[in-house]
Amino acid sequence: MGITVQNITGSTAMVIWPKMASCADTFYSVMYHPNWNSMLSSYSRKSFQKEERVPTTRSSFVVENLTPLTTYIVCVTCQSASPSSDQCRVFNTLERDPASASNTKKELALGIWLTSSILLLIIAAILLYGCLHILCRRTREHLQGQNGTSEQDHGKAWTKNTAQDSEELGRQSQPMQDTEEKHPGGIQLATIIENPSACKEPVMPTSKSRERVPTRGQCSAIN
């Protein structure tokens, strides 16, 4: 078939083949396998590790993701045909490309940076949540302390008012107690306001009290 392999690098190779007029299928099968040894391997389709399907309108294909410094075999056939020795080509990949190595390092560094950023964001979120939780708890405790102080002040004011009321009631009841002490028999004497115009006759002293009270029938009216 005149298969050729060009532009070989450490990880890619371009496979070129002439169009086959006898191939009536809709695509070509591009098969390749690493570490090829013709003494130990056959040309069976099952022996190939990779297989790509290419439309019959094309006559080239770039094989990618190859291993540097490795011997490969590549075969091109019609859709359902098994490859033969004249349809295959053996080639060796080169060393790893500096650009490829640099890209690999960049990808590795980018992956490490992304992973570190995600971990830092998670740690920052955890710390922020903890700080907010502590702040809310302290605020709640402060409010509870203020409420407790207000209740204590209210209780002290109520106790003080109660004491003042009790003291005032004691002062008001003191004259009544003095009066009861003067009359231990429990008899309270009423003060009679005499009308000078109604009672003109003398009054008789009584033995129960030093006060003067009118005798029966001597006053016409007592106001």
Structural features, described:
The chain is an alpha+beta fold and 223 residues long. Among the domains are: 4-93, Immunoglobulins (Immunoglobulin-like), CATH 2.60.40.10; 97-139. Helix content is 38%, strand content 17%. The chain has a 4-stranded antiparallel sheet, with no helix packed on it. Strand 1 and strand 2 form a beta hairpin.
What are the main properties of this structure?
1 helix, Immunoglobulin-like, disordered C terminus, three-stranded antiparallel beta sheet, 223 residues, FN3_dom, alpha+beta, four-stranded antiparallel beta sheet
Structural class: alpha+beta
Our Rg estimate from Cα atoms comes to 61 Å
Mean pLDDT: 74
Give the oligomeric state: single chain
The name of the CATH topology of one domain is: Immunoglobulin-like
Q: TL;DR?
A:
This protein is of the alpha+beta class and 223 residues long. It has one helix and seven strands. The protein has a four-stranded antiparallel beta sheet, with no helix packed on it.
What is the topological layout?
Elements: E1 4-6, E2 13-16, E3 27-34, E4 50-55, E5 60-63, E6 71-77, E7 88-92, H1 98-182
Antiparallel strand pairs: 1-2, 2-5, 3-4, 3-6, 6-7
